[in-house]
Amino acid sequence: MNKSMKIILVIAGILIILAIPIGGYNSLVSLEQNVNSSSSNIDTQLQRRNDLIPNLVSTVKGYATQEKTIFTDIANARSKLAGATNVSDKANADTALSGSLSRLLAIVENYPDLKSNQNFRDLSIQLEGTENRIAVARQDYNTSVNNYNTKRRRFPSNIIASLFGFQEKALYKASEGAKDVPSVDFTK
Description:
Layout: H1 3-61, H2 68-83, H3 87-108, H4 112-116, H5 118-153, H6 157-164
Helix pairs in contact: 1-2, 1-3, 1-5, 1-6, 2-3
């Protein structure tokens, strides 16, 4: 083998060795962007629900004026969600808001006129669709996080991840109270 052929083989070897980290880095960047996009989709759907809630609450208030605590709980939960800065805080605030909404919708059962109100029915349908979108967005986010975290832990990506500061991402988990059924007291 002549000298120029050896040089070409050495250069080709170096390029192949360099291609592995570059491909791993780019793959981690793409997966991290998927996580960020999925997180934004959750935020978008949570905001959609937050935008629907005042209209729903206003409609119910006209019929159920004595149910003031539920309206306060909803307002507080919406404030917590608006102030959430990380996935865990969002999940906890989301759980609180979902619980308050469940109690609100259970209260509606005591008001047949409200259930037949077209505005309330439209808002309920929109809210139900939004809840479904939120569930899908959460699943998509967790899938993105799982793909990203798996990639950053596998060899040789784990070396690249540590060199370039790719941090593990948190899954979207419901808070501890999410398993509890909301209590509704119709005696007040």
